[in-house]
From TrEMBL:
Keywords: Endoplasmic reticulum, Microsome, NAD, One-carbon metabolism. The keyword Magnesium does not apply. This is Adenosylhomocysteinase 3. One of its GO terms (cellular component) is cytosol.
Length: 204
């Protein structure tokens, strides 16, 4: 039962723990890496609800069409050849066991449920501020990652080839940057796509 436990009673901050996955990597920060097996089962269940994405992954992973892309997202993009790093889009959205499963798979994940505001920004910074790693795409939900890179790492921001934003708030922030003449990279408003509008507003 220990694998299933959330360990939320453990008051030690994940930032203060030295954890390693089974491959010896410590390029992540999650609540409890021991939850990886349970999280992997949750991912497999979720994949059954995404037949189109799974079919795309199976069809294209041999070609690695995203080779060279350095993105902040995850497994399907990784299977298609991208290098991905991930931080949560808000302090409550992370499933600790799924974050552990991704970290166990070798993804640099910096997120746990119930982060403080300071933790949240620390995780975003650890996600992007890596020596020898320059992101060239941002997949954002809320605009915090884009905003952080723009404000703290302007030279890194200028080398980004594209931004995809899927929230109303994040799109609003992008429009503000654009109106101020400061959005120097292409950005795509996924929030207003027909697919997302139907999914969020009609089918949910």
């Amino acid at each position: 039962m220990e694998k299933w436990a959330d360990s939320s009673d453990d008051e030690t901050s994940p930032r203060d723990k030295q954890q390693k996955n089974s491959k010896g990597s410590s390029d992540f920060c999650v609540k409890n890496i021991k939850q990886a097996e349970f999280g992997r089962r949750e991912i497999e269940i979720a994949e059954q609800e995404m037949p189109a994405l799974m079919a795309l992954r199976k069809r294209a992973q041999g070609e690695k069409p995203l080779a060279g892309a350095k993105i902040v997202l995850m497994e399907t993009l990784g299977a298609l050849g991208a290098q991905c790093r991930w931080a949560a889009c808000n302090i409550y959205s992370t499933l600790n066991e799924v974050a552990a499963a991704l970290a166990e798979s070798g993804f640099p994940v910096f997120a746990w449920k119930g982060e403080s505001e300071d933790d949240f920004w620390w995780c975003i910074d650890r996600c992007v501020n890596v020596e020898g790693w320059q992101p060239n795409m941002i997949l954002d939900d809320g605009g915090d990652l884009t905003h952080w890179i723009y404000k703290k790492y302007p030279n890194m921001f200028k080398k980004i080839k594209g931004i995809v934003e899927e929230s109303v708030t994040g799109v609003h922030r992008l429009y503000q940057l654009s109106k101020a003449g400061k959005l120097c990279v292409p950005a795509m408003n996924v929030n207003d796509s027909v697919t997302k509008q139907k999914f969020d507003n009609l089918y949910c």
